[in-house]
């Protein structure tokens, strides 16, 4: 299954955490932080913050949010009522405040990978 791709930005991390905690109101803030860090491939929230703080506003780093890793970490922390399909859907449907693409950049990226027609020379 494809993972949701998000821009690695503080606003996007906070948006996902907020949505997760609204859906599962028994989820503690620190546990949500640790699980979200695991879902992004980090061993701890502190490790994720270290990288997040080093990235400037002009850097575009994309990450894939793995709902399975998030669920595994939450189960390790004692949360067994979290539904994997709900988390996967949430990761795709959240309106992230800092989108990874915009019209100008998306057009440039698509243009780079568009094959040149054989008869254009």
List keywords for this structure.
single chain, about 120 residues, mainly alpha, two-stranded antiparallel sheet, 6 helices, 2 strands
Describe this structure in words.
- The protein is mainly alpha-helical.
- It has one domain.
- Helices cover 55% and strands 7% of the residues.
- The protein has 6 helices and 2 strands.
- The protein has a two-stranded antiparallel sheet.
- Helix 1 packs across helix 2 and helix 2 crosses helix 4.
- The longest helix is centred in the N-terminal third of the chain and has 14 residues.
- The chain is elongated, with a radius of gyration of 17 Å.
Give a short synopsis of this structure.
This protein has helices at residues 10-23, 29-39, 45-54, 67-76, 84-93, 103-113; strands at residues 4-7, 62-65.
Number of alpha- plus pi-helical segments: 6
Strand percentage lies at: 5-15%
Radius of gyration: 17 Å
Straight-line distance between termini: 40 Å
H/E element order: EHHHEHHH
Number of domains: 1
Profile the largest sheet: 2 strands, antiparallel
What is the averaged pLDDT score?
Answer: 86
| Largest beta sheet: strand ordering | 1-2
SSE blueprint and pairings:
Elements: E1 4-7, H1 10-23, H2 29-39, H3 45-54, E2 62-65, H4 67-76, H5 84-93, H6 103-113
Helix pairs in contact: 1-2, 2-4
